[in-house]
Every structure is written in structure tokens, then in C-alpha cells.
Automatic annotation (TrEMBL):
Name recorded for this polypeptide: Flagellar M-ring protein
Positions of the Flagellar M-ring C-terminal domain: 249-396
Organism of origin: Pseudarthrobacter chlorophenolicus (strain ATCC 700700 / DSM 12829 / CIP 107037 / JCM 12360 / KCTC 9906 / NCIMB 13794 / A6)
Chain ranges of the Flagellar M-ring N-terminal domain: 46-220
Membrane topology listed for this record: Multi-pass membrane protein
Length: 532
């Protein structure tokens, strides 16, 4: 193991030995939390991501799919009360293909597929009933595709055509809708269901379609339209008219100086109206003309008398001349015929009233007649229809505005105080945590430094210098001796120089043998000097 790692573990062990019981407990808890968090994170990352395989399943289909997953050893999860099956994301497409090959989930024969099972021997009644079932199935499938609709069922009542009936009754339809959990159908979607159903069936009017949800609520009644649709249309019209009138008044008397209230009476059902108008064509010759004249002239006999008791005729009146004239004229003229079909939609305005109150402080120099004319035009009021427009100048009360301003200021002050309190609370908590962490670090460092064990360094007894070998000198040849002066002895080095040389040699030897111990020794010397 490298000496750096060994030195690290040695210092860490020395520091741990210097911990108190409380510090050791905190360290153990921290290590345990770190290990458990690492294990939990690893297990969560290793867990596969589950994706819905099928949703909205029936019990029989869910059972078949689960058996297939068990057979393939594929992990799965069940949600939404068993109607949804989830599998790992990488297994979704394979399992869907296998389920499709096994005919799962099974789909009931609905719609026009029912007509494929009709044989050549089927009766007219069977064909009629099957065709009606096919229409119901196709409509139910289409409605079920709408957002928020979980399931749908359609029942049609289509009268049979007969030559013995002068007028065939209108067809009717009932639609049952089951919505997704937590979802309700808006009036617009209810109207969409109604118009979709009526447009798909011959002679089926939107007013003859009834819509009911799974909670038993009637969403659309026969002849009445969508429940609550008339009130919604009235509210939308009143809001739109109020905005139009208020925009005009704000430009005249200023914003906030006029109050507008609109009450509209709208129709709750739709109707159809047909009218025919005949007019004579001017300067157009007659299509046909005929004249018949009769004239009679002659003598006529008198009236005969009656027989008497003896069967003797009683004489009558006298004879005279007579004349008869008769003229009959027939003329066929071309006429213009205008046929008008009107459809009165649901929500048409039958009557409305507009009430306007103007602040007296801002009404100086304002002509009320002009204001009333502007309001009538802006609201589209029709006096012939019975619409009423009322404009009055009144002093406005400022108590509500003052109370609202005071409440707003108080709420603003409370919000600011609460915000400052939350900020101070956050700062106090953060400061406390920071101070506690700093105090813990300082205590740990002081304890570690105080309890750090110093290992003595063996510097040795002394340094032995090697003695160089000296060879003996050969005797010099006999010469005449010259007397030389004696050399002065060299001064010996001082004790401090020898001690320094010895210490340096010992340190070099120790560095060569154990670098780690040398580093610890030098670090201890530096700490001692810093403390001094």
C-alpha cells in the first residue's frame, strides 16, 4: 500500500481514537445514514421503469394477460383496481404483440361488424334489428373516443316506415356516458354528443336526444336541450352586454363612476317556424282566361192550377214573355309564393332590461337622454320587443371602497410581516445550523490536535565517520637532511559544527529509510513552532 494512504488511515485512526463518546455516536450515525442512503438510491436506480401495458381492462381480459405474463416470467404491477397492468418499459411492445396474437384483450363484436354475421336466410326483422344495433355500436365507439369519456352506450328508437301512416313519428335516442374518475362533461361536450347523435340518424332532431351520465344526472333532456345551457347562455349574454355598456360609460363619465346591471330572458329550447306568403305579380298577363254567357228569350206558359175535388182543373195565371242573361268569367293569374323556414336557436333573447346608475359627482354636464340612447345602442335593446333601459343619477357611497382599501392595506401589511417573519425564521435556522456545524468542526479539530500522539524519532547515538586507510611510506633515499620549521596544528572544529553535521546525516539516513515517519516528525516540529 502506498505510504500516503497508510499515513491517511493512520491519521484517521488517531483522530477517531481522540473522539469522545458523543462524537463517536454522531460519527456512527452519520456513516449509517450515508450507507443506507446509498443502498436506497442504488436500489431505486436499479428498479426498472414500469409502463402501462393495457388500461381499462375487464376482469376476464386482465386475468388472461396476467397468466401470460407469469408464463413469460415478466414482472408486473396492477393498478386502478385491476383494470391497468404495468410492465417494465423494455417489455411493453413484446408483450403487446404476444397478447394480440392470443386475442387479448378480447373485443366484443359491435358496429358494422355485426352485419358480417347475417346469413342469406335472415328475416327482414333480423336485418332491421341488426342494423340498428350496428348504428348504436358505431355511435358508442365514436362517443367513447372523446376526451374524458370512459364508456358510452347508445339506444335508438327508430319508427318503422309504413304506407298506412300519414306521418311517421320522429326518432329518439338515449345516450349513456360514463366519465373518467374526477371528470365531468361540460355543456359544450354534451351539445357535441347530442349533435353527433342526431346528425348520424335520419329524422333525429337534436331536441329528441337525451344524455345521462353514470351518476344518474340528466345532462340533456328530450325537448329541453342540455341541462343548464339556457342559464349559461343567459349569463354569457348578460356579461357580454354589461361589458359593452360599461366600456361606453367609462369613456363618458370615467372609470368607476357608473354601474350597469343587465337581466336577460332567453329561450330554453329551439324551434322551427315556416311561413308562406303569396303576392300578385304586376304587369304579367293571365295564365288562362275563359268567359261563359247564357241568354234566354221567349214566351213562357202560366202556372197550372191544382185539381179540385171533382178532378176539374182550376184555371191558372196568364201567359207572358221572359228574358234570361248569365255571364261567367274565369281568369287564372300568376302569383308569387315565398316560403320561409326559420330556426329559432336555443338561447335567443326574448326580453332584456338594462339598469344604469351614474355617480352624481361625475354627472355634471351629462345629458341623460344621450346616455340612454348610447346604452340602448350598445346593448342592442329593442323597445318593440319589450326591452327596458333605465338610467339614473345617484350619489355613490364610498364606504365599500374605503373598507376595501383598508382591508387591502391591512392584508398587505400582514403579508409583509409574515414574509419578514418567515425570512427571519429561515435565517435563524440557517445560522443555527451553520454555527452548530462550525462549532462541531472546531471542537473536533481541537480534540484531535490535543490528543494526537507523538511518536519519538530515534536519531541514533552518533555518527561514525569511516577512516581512510593510510599506506606506509617507503624510506627515503639517503640525502642530506634539511631542517624544516614545524607546521602549526590546524584548529579542531567546534562542538556545534559537529553536532549539526551529525544531525543532518541522521536526518538524511532517516529520510532514506522511512519517508512517512520523517514527514510526521517534520509536521510535528512545525506544529510546535506555530504553537510557540
Amino acid at each position: 500500500m502506498p505510504p500516503q494512504i497508510t499515513a491517511f488511515f493512520t491519521r484517521m485512526g488517531s483522530g477517531i481514537k481522540g473522539f469522545s463518546a458523543a462524537q463517536r455516536t454522531l460519527a456512527i450515525i452519520g456513516v449509517a445514514v450515508l450507507v443506507l442512503g446509498t443502498v436506497a438510491l442504488t436500489s431505486w436506480l436499479a428498479k426498472p421503469a414500469y409502463t402501462p401495458l393495457f388500461s381499462g381492462l375487464k376482469d376476464t381480459d386482465a386475468n388472461g394477460i396476467v397468466e401470460q405474463l407469469r408464463k413469460d416470467n415478466v414482472p408486473y404491477e396492477i393498478a386502478n383496481g385491476g383494470s391497468t397492468i404495468l410492465v417494465p418499459e423494455e417489455k411493453v411492445y413484446d408483450e403487446r404483440l404476444k397478447a394480440a396474437a392470443a386475442g387479448l384483450p378480447s373485443a366484443a363484436a359491435t358496429g358494422y361488424s355485426l352485419l358480417d354475421k347475417l346469413g342469406v336466410t335472415s328475416s327482414e326483422f333480423q336485418q332491421s334489428v341488426t342494423y340498428k344495433r350496428a348504428l348504436e355500436g358505431e355511435l358508442a365507439t365514436t362517443i367513447q373516443a372523446m376526451e374524458g369519456v370512459k364508456a358510452a352506450a347508445v339506444r335508438l328508437a327508430i319508427p318503422e316506415k309504413s304506407v298506412f301512416v300519414d306521418k311517421t313519428p320522429d326518432a329518439t335516442a338515449s345516450v349513456f356516458v360514463e366519465t373518467q374518475p374526477g371528470t365531468t362533461l361540460s355543456p359544450d361536450k354534451v351539445q357535441a354528443v347530442v349533435h353527433l347523435t342526431s346528425a348520424a340518424i335520419e329524422n333525429l332532431k337534436p331536441a329528441n336526444v337525451s344524455v345521462v351520465d353514470s351518476q344518474g344526472n340528466v345532462l340533456s333532456t328530450v325537448g329541453g336541450g342540455a341541462a343548464g345551457s339556457s342559464s349559461k347562455q343567459a349569463g354569457e349574454y348578460q356579461e357580454r352586454t354589461t361589458d359593452s355598456v360599461k366600456a361606453v360609460l367609462d369613456s363618458v363619465v370615467g372609470p368607476g363612476n357608473a354601474t350597469v346591471a343587465v337581466a336577460a330572458d332567453v329561450t330554453g329550447e329551439s324551434a322551427q317556424q315556416r311561413s308562406e306568403t303569396f303576392t300578385a305579380a304586376a304587369d304579367v298577363p293571365a295564365l288562362s282566361e275563359s268567359t261563359k254567357s247564357e241568354t234566354y228569350t221567349g214566351t213562357g206558359g202560366g202556372a197550372a192550377g191544382v185539381l179540385g175535388p171533382d178532378n176539374i182543373a182550376v184555371p191558372g195565371g196568364t201567359n207572358g214573355n221572359s228574358t234570361f242573361d248569365s255571364t261567367d268569367s274565369t281568369k287564372n293569374n300568376a302569383v308569387n309564393k315565398v316560403t320561409e323556414d326559420r330556426i329559432i336557436p336555443q338561447g335567443a333573447v326574448k326580453r332584456q332590461t338594462i339598469s344604469v346608475a351614474i355617480n352624481q359627482a361625475a354627472a355634471a354636464g351629462v345629458n341623460l337622454a344621450s346616455v340612454r340612447s348610447l346604452v340602448t345602442s350598445a346593448a342592442g335593446a329593442d323597445p318593440a320587443r319589450g326591452d327596458v333601459v333605465t338610467v339614473e343619477v345617484l350619489p355613490f357611497s364610498t364606504a365599500a371602497a374605503d373598507n376595501a382599501a383598508a382591508s387591502l392595506a391591512e392584508a398587505k401589511a400582514e403579508a409583509e410581516a409574515a414574509q419578514q417573519g418567515e425570512l427571519m425564521k429561515t435565517l435563524v435556522i440557517a445560522g443555527s445550523i451553520l454555527l452548530a456545524a462550525l462549532a462541531l468542526i472546531v471542537v473536533a479539530l481541537i480534540s484531535w490536535r490535543r490528543r494526537q500522539r507523538r511518536e519519538p524519532v530515534d536519531l541514533g547515538i552518533g555518527i561514525e565517520y569511516p577512516v581512510a586507510p593510510v599506506t606506509a611510506l617507503e624510506p627515503a633515499p639517503a640525502t642530506s637532511a634539511i631542517q624544516l620549521p614545524l607546521a602549526e596544528p590546524l584548529p579542531l572544529p567546534g562542538a556545534d559544527v559537529l553536532d549539526g553535521e551529525r544531525r543532518r546525516a541522521q536526518i538524511e539516513a532517516m529520510v532514506a529509510e522511512s519517508p512517512a515517519r520523517t514527514a510526521d516528525y517534520l509536521r510535528g516540529l512545525m506544529d510546535e513552532r506555530q504553537s510557540v
